[in-house]
Amino acid sequence: MPTLAIVIVSYNTRDMLRDCLRSIAPGASALARDIWVVDNASADGSAEMVRAEFPHVHLIVSQHNGGFAYANNLALRAALALAGAEPAAAANTLPASASQLPPPDYVLLLNPDTVVPAGALETLVAYLQAHPDVGACGPKLLLADGSLDLACRRSFPAPSAFVYRALGLSKLFPRSRRFGSYNMTYLSPEVETEVDAVVGACMLVRAGVVREVGLLDEAYFMYGEDLDWAYRIKQYGWKIMYVPSATVHHYKRASSRQRPFRSIRAFYDAMRVFHRKHYAASTPAPLNMLIEAGITLKEYLSLGRNLLRPSAARRVG
Asked: Strand, coil or helix: what is 111?
């Protein structure tokens, strides 16, 4: 029986976290599951809820919100028994009953604002078992209105893709393989395909790949860390696949809506970090300047639009 470690990072998402945990509760399954929840300094009683209602879950309570990558890494280090775990964070907050499962074969990053239908995780794990050259995969993610979460299958945000999005060409010509390349809008959501990246809201990775390429880059506070991880996974020669035969429901931006302005800053900071890390050295200086200016302009426009919205309607995009 394959073993799976599921890692969920929660920030003030108690009710959605409850629904998510119920959807992946241990039961009749072809998988041996270990569930790890990292509470990122929530103030809504999320940790207390997990202790009371899900005693089988491994709970790590971070005393400060160090960001999405930081929190995932706390659980990944513990689940994979990697060096570098923070003793203060782990010693007082892990449940007394340590996992009795062997080290996991696979790890799944999962957002608390997801609901996982029966069989979806088994389908994803079976896919990796059947395709030894694939290092990571993700399902078809459906939003609350039934539409596709475009982030679930992506190309890397190369400078050309940024320019197409900045000029609005990706929206004007979504069926164009060139202009719709970033979110692959030219392709039917039902087509299984190799992609550059899937989204960290539901991302299954071989445990051996995590050990090979390393943990998430904590230079990203929120957003971008999954793209960066995928970039590194592909650098090591692994494929990443979009697997629409598995479907997961995603009620998006549950955490970012609570602090929309900070989330906006984090979103555009992630763009800068990714570009500087992976593309700036090979991009002509004038284009680098244009991209940096474009990111800053879009950031200020997004901040301005949010100021004009009612507080309940404020968001990242």
From this structure: coil
